[in-house]
Specification:
This protein is mainly α. The chain is built from 5 helices and 5 strands. The protein starts with a helix and ends with a strand.
Length: 188
């Protein structure tokens, strides 16, 4: 895999309403490309070849940006497929996402996520101060409620009776105390 292949794939995704067929190891190949570019940049820096290092870093940035766009497009298409209940050619990772979305659409019990989500690393040039994300839990809201401003300054809601929502813990606790929601455990 290389940047040219990523660019071609992005063009294919942009020009089609359907998912472009990918090899099951596509995402692993991308991870390998990123590792190789990082190692090459580091090796060039150690040898004192600053021009070569900058070239590898530029390739790394281009590859990451192309992949972000590819993932955005594919996720939009996967969401549409899940809503419509249409199964298409997807990688293993995408099929897992599809199954979770399909369970949500069908109002089935959602599978439990076994791992904590990784912390988002700031982009170079952004403030390097760590921002702690509020703990989020799942709740079933039992009454109609307007939108609520959360501690992270995001709006949650509005909610209809019996909506399931993933909310910051602070909001969920208040809703439970006021008897307009109850906490639920999401498991397979």
């Amino acid at each position: 895999m290389d940047i040219v292949k990523l660019r071609e794939l992005l063009e294919q995704e942009l020009s089609s309403v359907e998912l472009t067929e990918l090899d099951d190891d596509f995402y692993r190949e991308f991870d390998s490309l990123i590792k190789a570019l990082k190692l090459s940049a580091e090796s060039s820096r150690e040898r004192g070849e600053s021009v070569e290092e900058r070239l590898y870093l530029a390739q790394l940035k281009i590859a990451e940006e192309l992949m972000k766009e590819i993932i955005k497009l594919r996720l939009h298409k996967i969401v549409d497929l899940a809503v419509e209940g249409i199964i298409a050619e997807m990688t293993d990772e995408e099929r897992r996402i599809f199954r979770i979305l399909r369970a949500f659409v069908e109002r089935e019990e959602l599978p439990e996520v076994g791992e904590e989500l990784p912390e988002v690393e700031p982009e170079p040039g952004e403030a390097e101060t760590p921002t702690k994300r509020p703990l989020r839990e799942a709740y079933i809201v039992t009454a109609e409620l307007p939108a609520i401003l959360g501690p992270d300054l995001r709006e949650y809601g509005p909610f209809k009776a019996w909506d399931i929502a993933v909310l910051p813990e602070e909001i969920g606790e208040v809703l439970v105390e006021r008897d307009v929601a109850f906490k639920v455990k999401i498991s397979p």
